[in-house]
Amino acid sequence: MSTLTYVYADSTCVLGPLATYAEPHCYDLCAEHAERLTAPNGWEVIRLAPDPAAAGPSSDDLEALANAVREAARPLPPRTSGRPGSSSPGAPVEVARRGHLRMLQDPGNTAQDKSSGQG
After folding, report:
1. Is the overall model pTM greater than 0.85, yes or no?
2. Are 96 and 78 in contact (CB under 8 A)?
3. In what helix (H) or strand (E) does residue 10 lie, and over which residues does it extend?
4. pLDDT above 80: residue 70
5. How far is CA 18 from CA 11, 56, 73, in A?
6. In the chain, at which residue ranges do the beta strands (DSSP E only) sit?
7. Using one digit for the tens of pLDDT, what is the confidence trace for 101-110?
């Protein structure tokens, strides 16, 4: 609901809209705890009211999400080796990739193994 940020140099607590990335000395709070927040003696609390228009996703956010879903759903072409530039005959064959994950086919796995149910 809200992000609490401590500014130690100014003895200030800033309670504002939920942050989109993590920073040191920042803590996300639910609505109940954000309402009940009190600061230590001598500290000031600054409450930033969230902009209601910015609360929902923008058209750019929705378009980026739709593009990411399309990209993830698109099948990837198989690659010919486990590593770029690797052409050794015993190297595993990369058959698919999703982000940092790769699916490799064992070079010793022949059509004979597949027909016997061991592949």
Report:
1. no
2. yes
3. none
4. yes
5. 21, 12, 30
6. 2-7, 12-17, 26-29, 44-47, 93-98, 101-105
7. 888 887 766 5
